[in-house]
Design goal:
By secondary structure, this protein is mostly helical. It has nine helices and no strands.
Length: 248
């Protein structure tokens, strides 16, 4: 959030961007998503069809997509500035059309770019990551869930090579991108998606599960302990890590 709030003041210069690697939280989100999907669904396929899986994921993800599009529409004209050059000239009917299309999460072409940032979801910019999340879910249902640990590791290694190619091959030596509907952005988007998703699934399958009936209570105690000692950054970090481990 801090990264995106300060992004508009950097003039696209990464040297001036505060917390200039904050965007990698998206990649961490993909990693967690791969882990959680494999953890939650790997052992359910004997009693669950593909369509039931898609329905479950749709119920979990789509409400936030719709709310994001609605909120983006409600606040759209408050963003009028030189940073978003197209807002001031966008008619209400076009904005409402983009809002309705945004509720479907379908990627929008440049003709619907109403902010001037070449986004596939102009009213809810970060929704591009949810679009790729949907693609990852489809890939999991069709292919990834059927792979052995060895083949999943091979695919993760290939995806890591693709990610390194994107990271080291560009002029900026960065992984930022993925929200536009052109070849370069799609290239970055899939590179940022595939390695974290596959690595998350691989981590789940090679790791050892720790079952606890009292995980929620223990996590609550960790959070309480974490905030009780605010003066200690080390204790806050340990507490947050413990909470994340218990909930995962």
């Amino acid at each position: 959030m801090t990264f995106h709030n300060l992004e508009t003041f950097s003039n696209t210069d990464p040297a001036k961007q505060i917390i200039n690697h904050g965007y990698l939280a998206v990649d961490f989100f993909f990693l967690l998503s791969g882990f959680v999907i494999a953890y939650a669904y790997d052992d359910r396929w004997g009693r669950m069809t593909q369509w039931q899986f898609y329905k479950r994921r749709l119920i979990r993800l789509q409400p936030m997509v719709v709310l994001g599009s609605l909120f983006g529409a409600a606040l759209f004209y408050l963003q009028v500035s030189s940073v978003f050059p197209k807002i001031g000239t966008t008619p209400v009917w076009e904005m409402l059309l983009v809002m309705l299309l945004g509720c479907t999460l379908l990627p929008l072409p440049k003709a619907f770019d109403i902010r001037g940032w070449n986004e596939i979801h102009p009213l809810n910019g970060p929704a591009w990551s949810l679009f790729y999340e949907y693609l990852a879910n489809i890939g999991y249902a069709l292919v990834f869930r059927k792979l052995s640990v060895r083949w999943l590791a091979v695919l993760a290694a290939c995806a890591a090579a693709l990610l390194l190619e994107v990271a080291l091959g560009g002029e900026r030596r960065a992984l930022i991108g993925g929200w536009a509907l052109d070849f370069d952005s799609i290239h970055v988007g899939f590179a940022r998606l595939l390695y974290p998703i596959l690595a998350g699934m691989l981590l789940m399958r090679v790791g050892k599960r720790i079952a606890s009936r009292h995980a929620s209570r223990l996590a609550a105690c960790c959070w309480s302990w974490r905030w009780r000692f605010r003066a200690s950054a080390t204790r806050r970090t340990i507490g947050a890590t413990a909470c994340t481990t218990l909930y995962a």
